[in-house]
Amino acid sequence: MTGEDGEMTISVPRDRDASFAPKIVQKGQRRFEGFDD
């Protein structure tokens, strides 16, 4: 993933039925512009 401060690695849990729904970083998202204050 690429963010404002360069590249970063994130860890996403795996589940068999693909029911995990990330909230901050969506599935397939490659850029992250930062957190809101």
What does this 3D model show about the protein?
With 37 residues, the protein is mostly beta strands. It has strands spanning 2-3, 6-7, 31-32. 0% of the residues lie in helices and 16% in strands. A 3-stranded mixed sheet has the order 2-1-3, with no helix packed on it. A hairpin with a 2-residue loop joins strand 1 (2-3) and strand 2. The radius of gyration is 11 Å and the shape is elongated. The two termini are 21 Å apart. The model has no long low-confidence stretch (mean pLDDT 69).
Features:
single chain, 37 residues, mainly beta, three-stranded mixed sheet, 3 strands, 0% helix, 16% strand
Question: Secondary structure elements and their pairing?
Answer:
Blueprint lengths: L1 E2 L2 E2 L23 E2 L5
Parallel strand pairs: 1-3
Antiparallel strand pairs: 1-2
* Beta fraction: 15-25%
Note the overall shape.
elongated
Number of helical stretches of at least 4 residues: 0
* Count of strand segments: 3
Q: How would you state the average pLDDT, rounded?
A: 69
Percentage of residues in helical conformation: under 10%
Strand order of the main beta sheet, please?
A: 2-1-3
Radius of gyration of CA atoms, rounded to a whole number: 11 Å
